[in-house]
UniProtKB/TrEMBL annotation:
Gene3D superfamilies: 3.40.47.10. Catalyzes the condensation reaction of fatty acid synthesis by the addition to an acyl acceptor of two carbons from malonyl-ACP. Catalyzes the first condensation reaction which initiates fatty acid synthesis and may therefore play a role in governing the total rate of fatty acid production. Possesses both acetoacetyl-ACP synthase and acetyl transacylase activities. Its substrate specificity determines the biosynthesis of branched-chain and/or straight-chain of fatty acids. Homodimer. Residues 258-262 are annotated as: ACP-binding. Keywords: Acyltransferase, Cytoplasm, Fatty acid biosynthesis, Fatty acid metabolism, Lipid biosynthesis, Lipid metabolism, Multifunctional enzyme, Transferase. This is Beta-ketoacyl-[acyl-carrier-protein] synthase III. The keyword Transmembrane does not apply. The gene is fabH. One of its GO terms (molecular function) is 3-oxoacyl-[acyl-carrier-protein] synthase activity. Residues 107-189 form the Beta-ketoacyl-[acyl-carrier-protein] synthase III N-terminal domain. The keyword Signal does not apply. It is an enzyme of class 2 (transferase). Residues 241-330 form the Beta-ketoacyl-[acyl-carrier-protein] synthase III C-terminal domain.
Amino acid sequence: MKRSRIVGTGSYVPSRVVDNQEVAAPLGLDPDQIVALTGIRTRHWVEQGQASSDLAVVAGQRACEAAGMTPQSVDAILVSTTSPDSAFPSTACHVQRALGVNPVMAFDLSASCSGFLYGVSMADVMIRSGQVRSCLVIAAEVKSRSLDARDRETALLFGDGAGAVLVVQEDSAQPDAPGILGVRLHADGSGHGLITIPAGGSRKPVGVDTVRASEHMLRMQGRAVFRSAVRRLEQAMIDLLKEFGLAAGDVTRVIAHQANARILEQLRRRLGLSPEAVYSVIEQYGNTSSASLPIALDQAVRTQRLAAGDLVLLGAFGGGLTWATGLVRW
């Protein structure tokens, strides 16, 4: 039976480290307040001239190296981003060119912070159907360029970075064989205004008036997002586990979108998990949108927090509104 398996992970963050002192000053906050509110101490921001594809290329290379494969051997490249290099061509095409990959399918997808799991789901379906045998899924975000330094809802949260996984086809009839067991995707467009960049698209092109109004900057209704994220993601995780006849206690590790340390803690408590079960890197990297989950996954792999046979529960929530869950046998 065909199944898909993650055989390599990779990540990359820019070298520039931005501490809480730097982001706190324009907000009139004490740096320790940011830690208390978010769990974040540092985040990484790009330098002038760096773009999402630059981060994606390095993360993709590292995922391929970890798998013992070359980028030239992949059958497809998917890039999740809400901060593409340009409206078109796709960031994935820039990544394909930079990696020297043959003319295979390469495209972007946009599902905000849930985009990585949306991409993994697409890779899983294409592999199970026999359309491709391998797929490089990358999430790359440069959020620092859309931040209003005076906006307390967003300025203290976001960082830049990229994470990647290489997903390949394997054949196994064993129910406990390693691989992606399932990914479930959700969306509710009625919450579109909770996380958004108002201007810059075809409905409201960027112009003098929109720039003056800072409508090209990221806006978020933090409290409403917090409540919705915890409620919807908890239920989606429970539903996915039930679908596979499992309970939260069967899970070895939970790796979720690194939005806010308080969201992760609420999920842990509601699911009845130990503190060690929920893996977090938000203290060092902040919220890197769709890249946060694969960055955390890669860090978990490289610090040996995952072992063969572990049952890993994945989850993400973001603008749209979108949310997604995944279950992986490592």
